[in-house]
Amino acid sequence: MTHTTVGWHVELEFKEEDDQHTRAAALVRLPDGSEVRAHGRASRHQVDPNQPRVGEEIAGARALNDLAMQLLTKAHEEIDSASGRTSHPIHV
Q1: Under a CB-based contact definition with an 8 Å cutoff, are residues 59 and 24 in contact?
Q2: Cα 87 to the chain's mean position, in Å?
Q3: Closest Cα to residue 29, out of 21, 37, 20?
Q4: How many CB atoms lie within 10 A of CB 11?
Q5: What share of the chain is helix, strand, coil (3-state, %, to 5)?
Q6: Cα dist. 51→59, 65, 86 in Å?
Q7: Contact 46, 61 (CB under 8 A)
Q8: In this structure, what is the dihedral angle of CA atoms 25, 29, 30, 34, given to the nearest 10 degrees?
Q9: What is the helix (H) or strand (E) element at residue 13, kind and residue range?
């Protein structure tokens, strides 16, 4: 059996909107040329210390979670299309 190694390149970008809000954008390019994009957001409560890295981690995790859910949905739709039937939902 031949094994093929495939890699995906995932990009994450962050934007500090102000000292309380951080946005993250995630992008993955798939081997078939398609792209999946996702977003996440973090908000700091005004009494919490200003820790930009924590805001990036939360916003990034939310963007990656959104990306994961979109990829699961895409895979589920491709399974259904190839099989001609409705398959069981894919759970995380």
Answers
A1: yes
A2: 23
A3: 37
A4: 11
A5: 35, 30, 35
A6: 13, 22, 46
A7: no
A8: 90
A9: strand 9-16
Structure tokens, 67: 């990306």
| Cα gap 80→74, rounded to integer Å | 10
d(Cα 66, Cα 58) in Å, to the nearest integer?
Answer: 12
Fill in the amino acid letter for 5: T
- List pLDDT tens digits, range 30-72: 988 899 999 999 999 999 999 999 999 999 999 999 999 999 9
Q: How many CB atoms lie within 10 A of CB 45?
A: 6
What token pair was written down for 61?
């995790």
Determine the Cα–Cα distance for residues 24 and 35; give it in Å rounded to an integer: 16
Identify the pLDDT of residue 1. Answer: 65
Query: Which residues does residue 41 pair with via DSSP β-bridges, in sequence order?
Result: 23
